Structures are given as structure tokens and as C-alpha cells.
Amino acid sequence: MLQLGDDLQDVREDLRHGSLTLFTHAIAQGKPLDALIAQLLHFSEQVACRMDRLPNGTSSLKSLLRMSWRSLVLMAVADISSFCSPAFIAELEPCSSFRFKFLRTRNESLTGRQTLYDALFEAFLEAGPGDRNTLPIPHSCLHPTAPQPLADLRTLSGSFV
Length: 161
What we know:
Layout: H1 2-9, H2 11-17, H3 22-28, H4 34-52, H5 59-79, H6 86-92, H7 100-126, H8 139-142
């Protein structure tokens, strides 16, 4: 189920890379994703109902998992609404805690930050045992296609220790 949710989130990327998933296959056939998304939501509900019958796990945890699965799908739909019919989006959006436009805007603003987070994570991975007091510049930032070098962050590295 989580793989299907991930595939739904990655539809645009999968289309760019030519990856074949249930969702990219439907799009390639010119079909809206409405039916597949409805099936995924129904499937997640069925899994949650079966999970509720399991003897272990608190009801709070089970409820959190159910809400997380649903949120994963709804947030993905907000980003890929152009692959759905307007009627389906109008029906599904009230099920979301947030308007789809807000979720799209939020995701777009976080996408730009992801590059910085990726670069910082890469820098921490590249840091050797002797680099405890400084933050190294990731190799990708030295590459001419990198968005911005992280040289200014070296001065801040003392605050991360």
C-alpha cells in the first residue's frame, strides 16, 4: 500500500524517467487517475479495518497509521490533480484537512529547500573523522550546475557541534 502511495507521489518523476507504474500506465493510455486513486483509498481503508482487528498495537497507533495513509494519498493528489478529472478533485478535496492549492504551494516551496537539505546531508556524509569542527563543502556544490556553494555555512558549522 505504501508503495502505491509512493508511486502516486512520484508520478511526474516516473513519467520523466519512463518508469512504468499503475499510475503512469493509466496516464499513458490517456485515462484520468480517478478510478485508481479511489481504489487506493478504498484499499487503504480495507487494510486499516483489518489492522483494527489485530490484537497488538494501540488504537491511537492504528488511528495514526490510517490518517497517515490517507494523508499520503490526498497530498499526492493535490500535486497531481492535473491527471484527475475536475469532478473527482471537487469530490475529494473536502476530504483533505487542507485545500489542494495550499498543499501544492507548500510542496513547491519545500522542493526548493530540498536541494539545500540534500547538500547538507551530503556534506555530513562526506565529513571525515577530522572534520568535526567544520562543515565540508559537498562535491556537488563545487560542480558548476549546483544551485549555490555552501561556503558561507562553514562559518556556521561551530553551531552544529
